[in-house]
Here is the input.
Amino acid sequence: MTRVPTSKDVAKAAGVSQPTVSRALAGHPHVSPATRDRVRKAAEALGYVPQESGRALRSRRSRRIAVVSSPDDLLNPFHPQLIVPLHQALGAAGYRTTLLVEAGDAAVLSQVTDGSVDGVVLTATNTGSAVPRHLAASGVPHVLVNRLVPEPGHPSCVADNRQGAADIAGVVAGLGHTEVALVLGPRRLSTSLDREAGFRGVLASGRAVRTRVLRGGYDHATGVAAAQALLSAARRPTAILCASDTIALGVLHEARMRGVDVPGELTVTGFDDIPMAGWEPYALTTVRHDAGRMAAEAVRLLLSQLRPAPETAAPEAVVLHADVVLRETHAPPPV
Amino acid sequence: MTRVPTSKDVAKAAGVSQPTVSRALAGHPHVSPATRDRVRKAAEALGYVPQESGRALRSRRSRRIAVVSSPDDLLNPFHPQLIVPLHQALGAAGYRTTLLVEAGDAAVLSQVTDGSVDGVVLTATNTGSAVPRHLAASGVPHVLVNRLVPEPGHPSCVADNRQGAADIAGVVAGLGHTEVALVLGPRRLSTSLDREAGFRGVLASGRAVRTRVLRGGYDHATGVAAAQALLSAARRPTAILCASDTIALGVLHEARMRGVDVPGELTVTGFDDIPMAGWEPYALTTVRHDAGRMAAEAVRLLLSQLRPAPETAAPEAVVLHADVVLRETHAPPPV
DNA sequence: TTGTAAGCGTTATCAG
DNA sequence: CTGATAACGCTTACAA
Here is the structure.
């Protein structure tokens, strides 16, 4: 088994010095086309790939960005809508992306503060997470996407969850519903808190609306369980507002299972506009936020830290408008 | 802005030499508890994190494994079932995991042959991919999961797709169906080819069965389109065997949209047993393969390359049995 | 048990 | 335009 070739081997093969190999392959401006070709050819022949560790050690840059996710988020159909454009935008900026799927703060921190990445995109951060604070302390450029943390000073890009929730709650209230249930996600997620605030703000300010609140994860099972509880209660709600599409689909399933007519007897709404929400059997009325734009703006915020431009202080938070998508799961309450 | 601390800084703070810092923090056996404590304390105080690039450069190991996926796979609900246990098994073996979500061979190769990972788990490999060959040529330990490539010499761990497909086709044939359609995935995926072979083997050997074949991606849209074509044809199939659950759900949706009774008028089967397949509104009859065990076996195959044990030649391929899951979308053909 | 010395492969600096 | 030289931060070998 032959040793993996280094730039020294390429140099010998091409008859140049080792630093010249580095310059030639890096596309350095002041190298003669002749030597560049010779070096390229030799590198090709030997199957030479510059070693990341040597490069990173010397240059103190890895040209790599970590996108931090979590096992929970990996299961959510909304996730790829965020990951793929992030990957693309970072690639366009000359950065490679590695996705970290970790549950614990410690595991994440140990992997992003060891100099192996130039920056971090946080997509699954809990409100109580210590990660943003530690990153700031270590001077690691970072940006939050689709999440906010209470402490200031962390660049973030989010949809206006509160506004989106308020808008769809307004639609439901406007239809005349007075028996409304909310099915929310975990308290540790800013999206859930903000959506809750949006829902509540509208429902409280309207006419006498009786509101029940259930809580769980952003998943199908939560929706099923919530619907079981709500639909077997003595006084059924006539509308169920869910903090995510995954929850709403669970509610829809359980409702149909029980022969409850949606939207005739029951209005159900979601949030996120995952692909399934648009499928014909569901046609879920929901709130859309533009993950692609969210990703692009987040990358912009991150890049402004990586290559700080003079005079252009980037805004700390970008908040994108969320749009209500009216499909077929909403209607006035039964008379 | 202060420089990020190095082991030298810790050494000075703790009043020891720099290599002693390395030994103390690495849990090296022959360090006095006193100095170990002193070093630990100093490191803690300075917020020292050993730099990956220095470590990797010197030790020639990164303690990191790349799990290679693709944007397409990221969208498939089966994906997390594989990724999460892979992550867990690798973590238990002392390796950190980074997920690579790349479409092109070149992008993948450039990231896994630069010494930044000790090994590679390939979860989304096309049959024609050059990646396994290049990895073998570069001497990078690797293993294929849920995929096979034609060339020998690449350790792999897969479900017995052919057997699983044959078994479920046997069930359908046994019910008496003679008008059967197959909706398959891309030709570039071994899973699709093997499932096709399993389906066809049984259907060809049975009594006169008329078989139609459609092809697309492993996704919902493919199922919808296939069902549209098949159900509006003059001679409708009485059973549609799908190469993935995502396809089958699309078929189910379209069938119900058209008021076709499943399973009364139409039998529909899937493959993978994704969580949705078990949801009550679907109750899809399908084939289950154990992603958790697949992941665990794959990691075992990879580890046997990373720490080669004497005398224990690891098998090249592990093939796991696939089980038919009988739910509620199969029945005899209408009379 | 600990310190000294060396070197991993690369990029940056400086002559020439 | 190119070569010699140094240095990045760490782990290993060897000496004390």
